[in-house]
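Tokens for chain A. Residues wanted.
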């Protein structure tokens, strides 16, 4: 109960209520319908009222004593019109109750029987049966035990169990099943376990002779607990497959019902055999075979026809035939949809089992997994692209077969409005991605699907195909896309966590993704769909830092055992210069955007003037033109714009510079520049926020400064230039390929074992 989303439980309750209505159409059991309805109402109440007040809990605890005493006391104290109205509501039970309780004094151990004026005088209430048949002693014991049980359930917040007990408690007013030998009596299950566990608790206070076996019982010898913590089971059928099954059930159910309506006209009469009818409601008729055929042709319902000498009975009540027609429509629809849905599940399960048996299940350090790397390139290259390239080479160098499935957002081009609408649907679920990756899985015998980015052309379809095919999927978290539509937790020049605090709807107020209402809506819708399908619960994650993990875990459906920590790594193909031979320069390498703090960096350099070391800016982005104009307009001579240059040249620059600088204004992922700098012994000047701030040990591996302050940046540069920091040797091997591969290989083995 506690491990499921409220929306899922509500949806289940609605389906159960529809099923309850369907059963009622056939059984016409008012009590069964009412008890089920009351149970679902209690279930919904406990679901949506997590924090109940003391008054609410008190009222809940009074439901049982009120139900029990009301049916005993009210028939005795009411009179006149009120008595008659209540007696009508309870179908004569008030008259019966008054008769049984006043005929003779109640006894301690019950009354066997008394004469009744009419056969219709029956005990039709559990509480009257208890106090009359079983006696006052049994009633008092049961009364006290039930109050203790309900209060214990309230204390332990056993909401699902409490809903069952309370529904049956209320239902006991009109039914005797609570104390008869009925399979429907679920209360005794909870009450019995409660009493047994209570006896086990008392065992330590009793002398040994009291706990020895007597009369075949061993009091407290074994303890039974009602646990309010549910074991989290493994999901056998992925929820998206369940959703498809539900769709097929509804679609083909409606289609079958429609076919029935078209094929069979609405009946005017219904003819039934004797065993299906009651006296006084029918006309006895004798029909020939020709008459039966004629009646059926015009739509009338004829059941149980034997021959023209065996009578049938035409129902007199108007609407009976129409009700039966409606039942047929529902029944044929239900069976038609169910057959298709069950067939789909059987086919899917059989294919999944075959794939499982055929897949190579060798797991261990000597087995080299076949890995499918999945990455959607942005239009502007960034650190993620370098990580993908490095990881592909790392796996191949260690003997793995690696297939790269990639798309580039340049493929989308610049479209008109209608084409953008089509692109939005692709971003939600790209059927091309699903088919192509499914084909690769079968053809290349993939063991692990390792995803880096899915926005926007690949889409979450990659997760679903892996889940449905039984292939473990792991997502490297480069940003905060799973909890924030724009992926950076940054808007309008400040860090924003509104979506974490108030839900994804907050992003629609601010048009968080590219300042577009439509694109933000598409991102939110995509995330909502995957959350509803519990997709994020079914896959695994690689977080680059503990900070990343802490933010990811705010998404409640993600299980902590599915989250691993593995930083980025780098390979050094250049030899860094000894620190004393390095040039008096500092490097910035990354996208040239406001979110990266490049504008503040230039303002700090202008403030420092000639005393600042040379600043080399590598990269491209939306502020590139602005930066060039700013440098030219302010005549800043010690800043050089290199543009987008190969990574090897960036590494060479970092290896011959005093430091790199990272004035980021957002949480960041794991900048490759950080790993490259540490591996070459280059200190880092960085903002004091997010992942970058956590990766820098102030005064040891670099200097941290206040992220949104030009003065703080300038002061940090001035302090470092006056007394450069030399980082310890341990940082040189912290982000190497060898150490990173060992972590990655262990992760692959773990997720395959779990899968």
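Reply:
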């Amino acid at each position: 109960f506690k491990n499921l989303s409220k929306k899922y439980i509500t949806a289940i309750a609605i389906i159960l209520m529809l099923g309850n209505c369907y059963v009622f159409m056939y059984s016409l059991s008012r009590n069964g319908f009412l008890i089920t309805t009351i149970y679902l109402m209690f279930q919904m109440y406990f679901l949506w009222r997590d924090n109940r007040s003391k008054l609410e809990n008190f009222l809940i605890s009074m439901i049982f004593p009120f139900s029990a005493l009301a049916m005993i006391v009210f028939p005795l104290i009411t009179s006149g019109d009120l008595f008659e109205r209540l007696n009508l509501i309870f179908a004569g039970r008030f008259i019966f109750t008054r008769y049984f309780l006043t005929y003779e004094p109640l006894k301690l151990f019950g009354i066997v029987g008394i004469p009744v004026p009419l056969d219709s005088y029956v005990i039709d209430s559990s509480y009257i049966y208890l106090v009359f048949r079983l006696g006052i002693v049994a009633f008092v014991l049961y009364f006290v035990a039930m109050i203790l049980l309900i209060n214990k359930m309230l204390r332990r917040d056993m909401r699902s169990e409490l809903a069952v007990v309370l529904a049956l408690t209320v239902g006991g007013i009109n039914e005797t099943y609570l104390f008869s030998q009925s399979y429907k009596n679920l209360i005794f299950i909870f009450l019995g376990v409660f009493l047994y566990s209570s006896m086990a608790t008392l065992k330590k206070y009793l002398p040994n002779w009291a706990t020895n076996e007597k009369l075949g019982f061993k009091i407290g010898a074994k303890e039974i607990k009602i646990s309010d913590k549910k074991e989290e089971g493994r999901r056998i059928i992925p929820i998206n497959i369940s959703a498809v099954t539900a769709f097929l059930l509804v679609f083909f159910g409606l289609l079958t019902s429609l076919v029935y309506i078209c094929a069979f006209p609405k009946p005017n009469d219904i003819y039934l055999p004797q065993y299906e009818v009651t006296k006084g409601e029918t006309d006895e008729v004798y029909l020939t075979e020709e008459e039966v055929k004629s009646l059926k042709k015009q739509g009338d319902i004829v059941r149980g026809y034997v021959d023209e000498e065996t009578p049938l009975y035409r129902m007199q009540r108007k609407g009976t035939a129409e009700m039966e027609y409606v039942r047929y429509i529902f029944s044929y629809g239900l069976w038609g949809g169910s057959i298709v849905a069950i067939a789909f599940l059987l086919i899917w399960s059989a294919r999944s089992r075959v794939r499982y048996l055929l897949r190579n299940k060798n797991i261990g350090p000597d087995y080299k997994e076949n890995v499918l790397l999945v990455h959607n390139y942005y239009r502007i290259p960034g650190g993620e692209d370098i990580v993908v390239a490095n990881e592909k080479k790392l796996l191949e160098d260690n003997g793995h077969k690696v297939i790269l499935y990639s798309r580039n957002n340049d493929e989308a081009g610049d479209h008109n409005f209608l084409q953008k609408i089509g692109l939005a649907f692709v971003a939600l679920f790209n059927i091309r991605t699903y088919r192509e990756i499914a084909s690769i899985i079968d053809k290349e015998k993939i063991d692990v699907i390792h995803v880096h980015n899915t926005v926007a052309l690949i889409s979450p379809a990659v997760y679903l195909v892996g889940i449905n095919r039984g292939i473990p999927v792991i997502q490297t978290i480069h940003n905060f896309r799973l909890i924030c539509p724009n992926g950076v937790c940054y808007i309008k020049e400040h860090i924003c966590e509104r979506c974490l605090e108030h839900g994804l709807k907050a992003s629609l107020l601010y048009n968080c993704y590219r300042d577009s209402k439509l694109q933000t809506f598409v991102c939110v819708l995509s995330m909502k769909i995957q959350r509803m399908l519990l997709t994020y619960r079914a896959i695994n994650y690689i977080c680059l830092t503990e900070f990343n993990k802490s933010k990811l875990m705010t998404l409640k459906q993600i299980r902590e055992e599915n989250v691993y920590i593995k930083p980025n790594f780098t390979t050094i193909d250049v030899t860094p210069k000894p620190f004393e031979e390095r040039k008096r320069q500092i490097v910035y390498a990354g996208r040239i955007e406001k979110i990266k703090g490049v504008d503040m960096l230039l303002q700090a350099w202008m403030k420092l003037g000639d005393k600042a070391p040379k600043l080399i800016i590598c990269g491209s982005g939306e502020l590139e033109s602005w930066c060039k104009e700013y440098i030219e307009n302010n005549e800043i001579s010690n800043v050089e714009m290199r543009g987008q240059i190969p990574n090897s040249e960036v590494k060479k620059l970092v290896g011959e510079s005093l430091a790199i600088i990272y004035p980021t204004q957002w949480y960041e992922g794991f900048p490759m520049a950080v790993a490259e700098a540490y591996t070459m012994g280059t200190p880092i000047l960085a903002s004091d926020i997010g992942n970058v701030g956590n990766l820098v040990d102030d005064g040891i591996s670099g200097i941290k400064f206040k992220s949104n302050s030009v003065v703080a940046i300038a002061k940090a540069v001035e302090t470092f230039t006056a007394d450069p920091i030399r980082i310890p040797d341990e940082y040189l091997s912290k982000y190497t390929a060898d150490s990173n591969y060992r972590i990655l290989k262990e992760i692959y083995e773990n997720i395959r074992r779990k899968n």
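The two ends are 24 Å apart (CA to CA). Confidence is low (pLDDT under 50) at residues 219-234.
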